[in-house]
Design goal:
- Helix content is about 0%, strand content about 40%.
- It is mainly beta.
- A hairpin with a 3-residue loop joins strand 11 and strand 12.
- Mean pLDDT is about 80; it is low at about 230-235.
């Protein structure tokens, strides 16, 4: 399975939502398996490495949406297109309804499942990380809801009525704050990040100045500037990169 995010066409009135993503089965690429919709444009997506029926999407308004693909179609709205029926699934959980201090305040540019070791495979919760364009990485813990109700949650407004999966903020890292290159900030924008293979607490962050930052969840470790791309004419925006 893979996930695609789409920008909404101005002439397309099929769905009354700004955000649209689809999941696909490579054995049938002619129509999506599921259609995911939300109230903000979708910027990036990933599938849980722990449970492949959980999809995460980062949105233009800074929110993170989670879809539990195990939910019944009856919980969502049906649409008709070219005599074909499909279901537009609203998020099981969205951070748009929680306090600003607990989420991002700028658009999400990248989201990924956090790599786990063999011991964590036995855990009932797992984590994802999201990056916004201002260099803030938020670590989220994904949890099962034991007392799910179709009347909704009185304490967690981000949880859709009947939803069984939610997200809780675990930590935040401000990568956009290196001490050795103040002339690059605060104009710097961040577009991609990668968890270190050698240290699960370490992250590399790509920027629109061609610079690569290294930051950590450890409070004692400050953000470092690994590459200063502005001195080379070929270095400009870095949208994606891969550690090998």
């Amino acid at each position: 399975m893979f996930v695609t995010c789409y920008s909404k066409s101005k002439s397309d009135s099929l769905v009354d939502h700004a955000g649209l993503s689809c999941t696909w089965n490579l054995q049938n690429v002619y129509e999506p398996v599921t259609v995911l919709v939300s109230n903000s444009a979708h910027r990036c997506a990933c599938v849980s490495s722990y449970n492949h029926t959980i999809v995460f999407v980062g949105c233009e308004d800074g929110s993170i949406c989670l879809w539990d693909l195990n939910e019944s179609d009856s919980m969502h709205k049906s649409y008709q297109l070219n005599n074909k029926h499909f279901v537009g699934r609203l998020p099981t959980y969205s951070t748009s309804a929680i306090q600003v201090a607990e989420s991002h305040n700028s658009k999400i540019t990248s989201i990924q499942a956090i790599r786990f070791d063999q011991e964590q495979l036995q855990m009932t919760s797992y984590q994802v990380a999201s990056l916004d364009e201002h260099g803030v990485i938020v670590i989220w813990v994904v949890l099962s809801v034991l007392d799910s109700s179709f009347s909704g949650s009185q304490t967690d407004l981000g949880l859709r009525p009947g939803g069984k999966i939610k997200m809780v903020k675990s930590a935040a890292i401000n990568a956009n704050f290196p001490q050795h290159a103040p002339e690059l900030f605060p104009e710097l924008r961040t577009y991609a990040f990668q968890q270190s293979y050698s240290d699960s607490n370490m992250y590399y962050v790509a920027t629109d100045k061609g610079a690569i930052l290294k930051t950590s969840r450890a409070e004692s470790v400050t953000t470092e500037l690994l590459l200063r791309g502005t001195r080379h004419p070929l270095h400009h925006w870095v949208y994606r990169f891969q550690q090998v």
